[in-house]
Amino acid sequence: MLRIAIQKSGRLSEESLKLIKECGISFINSSLKLKTESTNFPLEILYLRDDDIPGYVADGVADIGIVGENVLVEEGMQQLAVESLGFSKCRLSLAVPKADDYSDISDLQGKNIATSYPNLLQAYLDERGVQAHIHTISGSVEIAPSIGLADAICDIVSSGSTLISNGLKEVERVFKSQAVLIANQNLSMEKRAILDKLLFRIHAVQRAQR
Ligand code: ATP
Ligand code: ZN
C-alpha cells in the first residue's frame, strides 16, 4: 500500500483528486475524513494542509504527495520532486502600491516587504544584490501596504485581480510554480513498484490531455 498526501481543502485539492480519479483509481470521497483507501488500487489518501506535505513525505509519514513547487522550494525540499503535474499554475511576484514610481529592483533597497515566502524572496533579492527587510506573515499579505505594515509585498498571483483590488501592481516575478508530485527518497521496492505503476498512469493521462 502506497500512501499519498494531498491538500485537504484549497487550491490544489480538486485537481489533485481529479488526477487520481483520471488514473482510474476509485475511492470513497469524503472530505470530512483524514484518510481514505482506494477500492481498486493499493493507494491510501491522506488529507493535509499543503505546508505540511513536504515534511510528512520527507519523514515517511506519507510516501508521496502533491504540493505547489512554491511551498516545496520555500521549505528547501526540492530534492523530493518527481514530476511536474501541469496544474495549479501560479507565480510568486513582488507588488507595490499602484501610485508608486517603480523602475527596477533597486527601488526596493532598504524597504519593508511582507511575504509568506521569506526564503524564495531572500534568494531573489540576494541574487540581485538588494537588501530589504523581510516581514514574514502567514496570510492576508496583500493588505500589508494599505495598513502601513510594508512598502511592498511578495505573494502568489494567478490572474492579478487580487492585487488590483488592493491597489497594487505587479513589478517583479520571483518564482514560477505549478503542482508537483513528490516522493520519499527511501521507498521500499514494493512501494517503488506501486509508484511506478501510478506514474505510468499519470503519463497516460498527460498524453491524453495534450
Ligand atoms: P492550507 O490551508 O492547505 O495551508 P493555503 O491557504 O496555504 O492552504 P491555497 O491558497 O489553497 O493554500 O494554495 C495552495 C497552493 O495552490 C499554493 O501553494 C500554490 O501552489 C497554488 N495556488 C495558490 N494560489 C493560486 C491561484 N490563484 N491559482 C492557482 N494556483 C494557486
Ligand atoms: Zn498552506
From TrEMBL:
Keyword Transferase: yes
UniProt main location, coarse: cytoplasm
Pathway membership: Amino-acid biosynthesis; L-histidine biosynthesis; L-histidine from 5-phospho-alpha-D-ribose 1-diphosphate: step 1/9
Subcellular localization, as worded in the UniProt entry: Cytoplasm
Domain ATP phosphoribosyltransferase catalytic: 49-203
Catalytic activity: 1-(5-phospho-beta-D-ribosyl)-ATP + diphosphate = 5-phospho-alpha-D-ribose 1-diphosphate + ATP
Signal peptide: none
Keyword rRNA-binding: no
GO molecular function, one term: ATP phosphoribosyltransferase activity
Cofactor: Mg(2+)
EC number(s) given by UniProt: 2.4.2.17
Regulation: Feedback inhibited by histidine.
Keywords, ordered alphabetically: Amino-acid biosynthesis, ATP-binding, Cytoplasm, Glycosyltransferase, Histidine biosynthesis, Magnesium, Metal-binding, Nucleotide-binding, Transferase
Function of the protein: Catalyzes the condensation of ATP and 5-phosphoribose 1-diphosphate to form N'-(5'-phosphoribosyl)-ATP (PR-ATP). Has a crucial role in the pathway because the rate of histidine biosynthesis seems to be controlled primarily by regulation of HisG enzymatic activity.
Family: Belongs to the ATP phosphoribosyltransferase family. Long subfamily.
Record's protein name: ATP phosphoribosyltransferase
Organism encoding this protein: Pontibacter aydingkolensis
Organism placement in taxonomy: Bacteria, Pseudomonadati, Bacteroidota, Cytophagia, Cytophagales
